[in-house]
Amino acid sequence: MPEPPLKDPTPLQTNYIPQNIEYREQEIEALRDVFSNESVSQNLFIHGPQGTGKTHVTHLTLQEIDNKCYVDCSKHDTQYKALKQVLQQLTGEKIGDGYHTSDLQRKLVEKTGVLDTVVILDEIDFLLLNDGDDLLYFLTRMETRGQTGLVLISSNHEDLKNKIEERTYSSLQPRRIGFEPYTAEEAFQILLKRAQKALTDQSLQKAALTYITATTQNITAGLYWLKHAAETTNSVITESHTQDVQEQAFEKYAGHLLSHFSEHHRLLYQAVQELDVENNSINTGDIYTRYEELCKTYNENTLSKRRLSDFLKHLELLDLIEAEYHYGGQEGKTRDVKLASL
DNA sequence: CATCCACCGGAAATGTTGGGAC
DNA sequence: GTCCCAACATTTCCGGTGGATG
Predict the structure, then answer these.
(1) Is the C-beta atom of A141 closer than 7 angstroms to strand B?
(2) Would you tell me how many other CB atoms lie within 10 Å of the CB of residue A67?
(3) Which residues pair with residue A177 across a beta bridge?
(4) How far is CA A188 from CA A2, A7, A85, A209, A228, in A?
(5) In this predicted structure, what is the pLDDT of residue A35?
(6) pLDDT value at position A38?
(7) What is the residue-wise DSSP string for A159-190?
(8) Residue A315 DSSP class
């Protein structure tokens, strides 16, 4: 009687951080370099596609540093919300709304005091859609006796310089570290290590894993795929089984990316998905019409076009869609949208 | 060279919420 | 409580875009 393949799901979860991260020696070295001997020597800008280990490498390398805080800016996308997050982590106190931003800024200056502090701002692009520039300017100019080191992480832009104002960039002066996508072989080895811990012996066919890592080198997506494949079979994970569950697995991955966004983000994404099946090029107006229909069927109130235009940008930053912008021309000023997939 | 496409995206307006001072 | 203020989500308003077309 064959047993189910999954014995411990933990190593297949995306928040599981292995003790050593492979194929990232140079990047780890570069980070250690900046944070050596207990003092912060420079700000950092880390960029690279999704699922290339940016966040994991940062967490692992800065494990030893006490006075640090980590903010996921896709959840905390304004100066106020990010500052609140930073303060809560540094002090352990709950902070409510209703203060002025300058109050939070003053509190932060007090709390950092003489200590060196590291602030990690992940998914920085979401912050830059709003008043992120002001926050970065404040943090780089903040007058405290200790050093403040910033680590900015982006999945979407290789260059920070043209995303922020010159005065901000010039006081930031970050060192840039780029993460290249893994090769299929590297992705294979990484997922194999995790699979060996999570799955029972002989339960994963080599061809199955080869298929996954040839399709996507995004480790996060690969983990969702592998985990879903393991959960949906009672015997061995075969290549054809991984192919069968490919779409469902991507659906799970997309659900994970959208989990802390609004219901309207999900409806909007569903609208794009549905239209993508029918057409090969979609523009914004059609998407909005389909979104309105979906709102009706799910009994949700519809948000305005302007608002949804911003949400569409969020989906683009998450790499769930690809958009080509036309600023005028025969078709008018619009976006051509395509669904992204594994 | 005027017109048109179709909506981008900035800015101001609106309504809600919570903190602080009285 | 009441008043004022700021942050925030969202709506409303609208000027602007640039290549094709006539």
Answers:
(1) no
(2) 17
(3) A46
(4) 25, 20, 36, 7, 17
(5) 83
(6) 61
(7) -STTTS-HHHHHHH-PEEEEPPPPPHHHHHHH
(8) H
What's at A287, amino acid-wise? I
Please tell me the predicted confidence (pLDDT) of residue A39.
63
Residues of chain A with pLDDT under 70: 1-2, 37-40
Residue A307 CA and nucleotide B11 C1' are separated, in Å, by 14
Whole-angstrom distance, CA of residue A259 vs CA of residue A182: 26
CA A150 to CA A6: how far, in whole Å? 39
Shortest CA to C1' contact from A304: nucleotide: C11
One-letter amino acid at A220 equals T
C-alpha to C-alpha distance for A207 and A192, rounded to whole angstroms = 12
User: What's the confidence (pLDDT) of residue A19?
Assistant: 83
Query: With contact defined as beta carbons under 8 Å apart, do A138 and A105 qualify?
Result: yes
C-alpha closest to that of A297 among A267, A261, A273, A341: A267
Strands (E), chain A: 44-47, 68-72, 117-122, 148-154, 175-178, 282-283, 321-326, 334-339
**C-alpha to C-alpha distance for A282 and A272, rounded to whole angstroms:** 8
What pLDDT score was predicted for residue A2? Answer: 61
Q: Is A204 helix (H, G, I), strand (E, B) or coil?
A: strand
CB-proximal positions of chain C, under 7 Å: 5-14, 16-21
User: Which residue's CA shows the smallest distance to C1' of C19?
Assistant: A329
Q: Which residue is nearest to nucleotide B18 (CA to C1')?
A: A98
- Give the separation between CA A305 and CA A270, rounded to whole angstroms: 16
